[in-house]
Amino acid sequence: MTSLKVENDHSGDRAVGEGYQRGLGARQIQMIAIGGAIGTGLFLGAGKAISKAGPSLVLAYAIAGLVIFFIMRALGELLMYRPVSGSFSEYAREFVGPFAGFVTGWTYWLFWVVTGITEVTAAATYMTYWWDIPQWISALVFTVVLYGANLISVKLFGELEFWFSMVKVTAIVGMILICAGILTIGFSDAGDTASVSHLWADGGFFPQGIGGTVATLQIVMFAFLAVELVGVTAGESKDPEKTLPKAINTVPWRIAVFYVGALVMILSVVPWTHFKPGVSPFVAAFEQMGLGVGAAIVNFVVLTAALSSCNSGMYSTGRMLRDLALNGQGPRLFTRLTKTGTPLVGTTFSACLMLVGVWINYQWPGEAFDKVVSFATISGMWAWIMILVSQIRYRAKADRGELPQSSFKAPGAPFTSWFALLFIFGVIVMMGVDPEARVSLYCAPLWALILGVSYLVLKARDPENAAFKR
Fold this sequence. Notes:
By secondary structure, the chain is mainly α.
């Protein structure tokens, strides 16, 4: 079976060859791109990272952010060459091989299932701020509600994500302005002690040494996971040639404002020693300022952020399973769409697996987040690796005249792509050194074995679908 090529359909509502509705407009794509990277990793994971690295965490986010920009520009080049819904696995099939596409599709699906568990876990943790209820109950309710939300049309999904992201963006900008006011005017309980000198006065900029900063990179990279989500929306964007490049080019200022800027302001108002793992630094900062109501508001915002990311996860898993099925690398029943263009079977299957998060929260309510974050990181980074390798191979073929040039070429490529690859492999090595993150590397070979055996079975039963043909 041939891989389906999606042509740009400006005259109709559906993506040719896939059956999806082109219901995502420019403002929705922009906010999905902005909000996709603002979630648990920043709002909850940053607390642990601050305790490990201190103010130097700002530098870690800046360097990792540059790498993320290289990855996104590589993805943008591929998207303008051929905008398809199952972008990562499609490009891996074409430029690396059918097995690479098979592995990428299923691994990215697994990433979002695991991420969904992570986000539901975070949301359940935030609920304990107001009510002393078991985490697993909150996790169950959130999973069921978000599953129901994903039965709507893609246009309504985009509208919900637009407002979810607007809440997150508004909250972070508001927090930055409040911190700026405390630093300049001096109001609140933290007004007398707030100073940018906190960035170097409490043990220096590297209070835990450079090793402590390096050790946080897997947490930092997890925070950036989901920036590539904009690629999954390619098959449902109304005008991908305009909306996708514009969304990708916003990556630098997104990172500068929402990560680097926010952390600089928080750590200037409240010393890094006041933060601890498992507690959102945003909530902790407002509590230290004596703004109790502000802390409650921020807790609501980070709850929204976690639910938004989980909602995006359910959206992605259904599309990725359908792409695999369309290419004969997954069960045919995943190809079915509702009248509104929703991959109901794939979304339902993924949501059922996300219920594992309920069990994790029941068994280990205090450790659930850490248990799944490292595995989500390694599986998500596989998609980045395939994006970079595919872009390097595509650029080589385009330069030789074998394929048309992309209208959105990545600057500095392929050198920037090679640099990003080396950085990612370095993070993976550091994960192997960290005892807490090492569990993901133990799981990765098992997952690779499962995929390898599954592909051999597929190849034996249906050799045609084990080969890529355009």
